[in-house]
Amino acid sequence: MKKYWLAAAGVVAAVAVAAPSAVGAPTETSTASTAAAASPGSPDSTASPAAGTAVRAEPAKVTPAKAAVSAAPAAKPVRTVRPGRRVDAGGGFTVWLTRDGKHWTGPDGYENFRSVVDGNIDRSEPGVSHQSEGDATGVFHSGLYYGTRKAGRVELSDDEGHKTVATLIALPGRPDWGVWYAHTGPADGNGGSSLGVTLYDRAGRPLAELPGFDFPAGRG
User: Fold this and answer.
1) How far is CA 193 from CA 18, 122, 131, in A?
2) C-alpha span between 119 and 131 (Å, rounded)
3) Looking at the predicted structure, is the pLDDT value of residue 37 above 60?
4) Whole-model pTM?
5) What letter does residue 130 receive in the DSSP assignment?
């Protein structure tokens, strides 16, 4: 009978020792134990604690998450058009390209032209131009981009950071120039010329920037 009482006392003592380690133990404890059991050949596996022995686990290292980077507006692929082909730019506007430059007409039917061969633009380095015309219903913006064969995006932006991605068109063979166009809301009193224009390459790097100007509608 004495032998049985001694065995029962040993069980109670083991429970008393093990209980404090279970209360308030960090959740990493079970993870650390699982990792040791899963690696029999590691040094830790040869020194596994006996049953009922409290195990101290090191707090898990937490790597702070990096701040999310706001994505840039999606670029529209450059559209290739044949020389002289009329492109419906919306809002009653039509745009077409020739070897000499950019042509466009508005709802009034009047034809406009911007040359790329008369020396008014320097095609030896990236650049962008801007023309705009509109009224209380909206503004049509267009221009040339030039000096690069890696154009990827043209954006218009206002003082509040609102951005509009333009449509890009170019002649076959990807020459070092092309045309962009876009529509925005009603003008702010100067035909929309106060919007800045930025040309980016296909990797999203800015190549050229044209600040907004207080030109009357249809100029620039």
Assistant:
1) 77, 21, 7
2) 18
3) no
4) 0.64
5) -
